[in-house]
Write the structure tokens for this entry.
Amino acid sequence: MSLPYRSIVVLTGAGISAESGIQTFRAADGLWENHRIEEVATPEGFAANPVLVHNFYNQRRYQLLQNHIRPNPAHTALAKLEYACSQRPDHEFLLVTQNVDNLHERAGSEHLVHMHGELLKMRCMVTELVFDIRDSINVDTVCQCCQQPGNLRPHIVWFGEIPLAMNQITAALQRCDLFLAIGTSGQVYPAAGFNDIARQHGAHTVELNLQTTTAPFDQHIRGPASQVVPQFVDSLINHTS
Ligand code: OAD
């Protein structure tokens, strides 16, 4: 059975992980887990108070590794869509997530880019080498590449830094004929501009969100990701031409 689209790019944001128990960024109070964004998500915040910033990401990592935090049906549906594309000749699929959790890979997604980094990775600021991490890091942690304390930072893209894999993402957006934005408020660039790039290159663009935003998508589907994403994916996979 054919899919109605040949080249699909999906952008996900915090909303897709909300039903897995991970809080979104822009809560009504404007704080991220009780901290101002500038305090915990900027290079300046890290330079001013590395202990606080390490502790903040240590807590987020600890939370992510709790048993009750699991992929939900929206994550699983995207893995199913990727698999469906992989089974059809000349189809391509790229999942771009702004999320730093690992729920997409745990659901089975493989062709995946973490444009804002990953909680379960740390980076040496001297060599730029990236390492897996599951425990806490702090200002005294000795780096495994340079054997020095104080050189490690969370592998997270902070405000003012350039997101990862932008060339790959831009090329995929320019080629795609379907672009989905799931559970993202569209307030942070460059991700907020992906819809425009895809539309300018002729893609059909769809927003799936709990609350419809004012962004100019061709189609808006409102509802919790765990319901609307599996429904939408099934409608693509079961499409008959
Ligand atoms: P936000 O917290 O800004 O937005 C979350 C979006 O998810 C909102 O539009 C909600 O309406 C929607 N939402 C909430 N629950 C949902 C559900 N169950 N189903 C579907 N949608 C739901 O998060 P992002 O847009 O991901 O960057 O934020 C973008 C970036 O800003 C983040 O990656 C992070 C942050 O600062 C960095 O850390 C660099």
About this structure: The beta strands are 7-12, 92-97, 112-114, 117-124, 130-132, 152-156, 178-182, 204-209, 219-222. The pocket of 2'-O-acetyl adenosine-5-diphosphoribose is lined by residues 13-15, 18-19, 24-26, 37, 41, 98, 116, 157, 183-185, 187-188, 209-211, 224-225 (CB under 6 Å). The longest helix spans residues 50-64. The chain has a mean pLDDT of 94.
